[in-house]
Amino acid sequence: MDPTCDRIHQNPPPVSGEKRVVDEMDFFAEENCLKKTSRVDAIKKESTELDSELDTGLNLHMANTSSDKSMVDDETLPNMEKKRTTNKLIVLKDELERMNTENQRLRDMLNEVNNKYCALQMHFVTLMERQQNRKPRTAEENEMIDRTTEEKKDGGIVFPRQFLNLGQAAIANKEELSQSSSEGRTQNGFRSPQNNVELVSVTFKSGQEAESPDLANQGWVPNKVPKFDTSKDYDQATDATMRKARVSVRARSEATMISDGCQWRKYGQKMAKGNPCPRAYYRCTMAVGCPVRKQVQRCAEDRTILITTYEGYHNHPLPPPAMTMASTTSAAASMLLSGSMPSADGLMNSNVLARTILPCSPNLATISASAPFPTITLDLTNTPNPSQLQRPQGQFHVPFPNPPHSFPSDGPQVFGQALYNQSKFSGLQSSHQDMMNAATAAIAADPNFSAALVAAITSIIGANGHPNNHGNNNSSTRSSSDNNVGKSNFVGN
DNA sequence: CGCGTTTGACCGGCGC
DNA sequence: GCGCCGGTCAAACGCG
Ligand SMILES: [Zn+2]
């Protein structure tokens, strides 16, 4: 839409669009050590510029070519010249096509890499968790842990289970994914051209909210049925701490909604008080009873920033990309959590560490202990977000090495779960802290991770990047949303 | 005609 | 108790 202030400031207008994207890529690319990746990256960049970047890249290129041509035409009209240019064009087209195929191939590769990465991360998280369990804890904590462990055995607990699913599914669905997302209608592709995720934040909602943490099995009961009734009530009550995790993703996107691989149905829209932009409410429709909901809202200051907040856990398997994201996110979350909830000490440590590492990784994870529920924020880019800057003191940052490729949309599932599980122990692990931090740092510092992810992002964004939004996006895509905004504003409040 | 979105109404929580 | 507010419901609407 309107030029984003940020962008403009940061980049020169003309090439801005493409430059911007490339810039981000470059950031990682520099760290990039993956043998093929580096090369791949270069190619990818090209292809991205050529085909994907909807308006920006593509148009720009086209514009250039055409302009060249026109110039020639104007000055010398000889047919030869014309032919030449035409040929050139054809050649370019061929090239473009080639790039596309190449891109496709690369995407496959990346998928693979991603899966591997995912697996690795799962492993990592598992290890961490194990480590954690080893720690001495209070009786209560022990109890919880025990329970958790048991549940794991049963497969009852979602956290571990999800990971398993992730792994399996990731592998199993890989092909499906790349080929056809058989999902019917409104499945969001995981392509969202201009979406660059910048940060993820998770919020725990305390209180007896509805979703049982176990979520997996429990369908979300719509209607006004008191959530309390349906819900968890039982035991879970013990850990009244958090029933619900919130993951919010800050993404730069001009689209009305980021695509995350899930199907969403809009069920409401309202004006938030401090924000001129409306907030849209969506519900996951991938599965019948899926309790996951999300809110999409644009940042007041910078409207190019889209804030998507996910709540609840999916009661169904996630599409590969989403899963990858989820695991990734969850890993980060677990890292955060491991050191988070705890005292300020932990916070401080993390903070320091984060700052130290910051230069290496543009991504940040933040936890804020603000009011009702603490918020964890994973900052994936170093973008100077006003909101971020404004952030109150009670937060700390941790570098988050994994830029989600499309969106952590489904993060809540794994992510949330992880948070939930770990949050139980909150307060104890100061020592883990170190370990966690170390691990985090290690990962963050490891260019391979970043590279792989960047590659993934690039491929996904680039390959599929076309303007139209899929599924739900449509709904919101319609300008109507804006209109509604106005109306609903008044009405709503 | 089915389905998803739109949008005003409704509801529960919260602060005054 | 009242009003604000975030969130959800559901009838109406529009699209394919
Ligand atoms: Zn779902």
From TrEMBL:
Under the heading PANTHER family, the entry gives: WRKY TRANSCRIPTION FACTOR 31-RELATED, WRKY TRANSCRIPTION FACTOR 36-RELATED
The record's section on SUPFAM superfamilies has: WRKY DNA-binding domain
Q: What is this protein called?
A: WRKY domain-containing protein
Top-rank taxon, per record: Eukaryota
Q: Extract the coiled-coil ranges from the record.
A: 82-116
Record-linked InterPro entries: WRKY_dom, WRKY_dom_sf, WRKY_plant
Q: Where is the composition biased (Polar residues)?
A: 178-195
Question: Which cellular components does GO assign to this protein?
Answer: nucleus
What are the start and end residues of every segment in region (Disordered)?
175-195, 464-493
Query: Is Transcription tagged as a keyword?
Result: yes
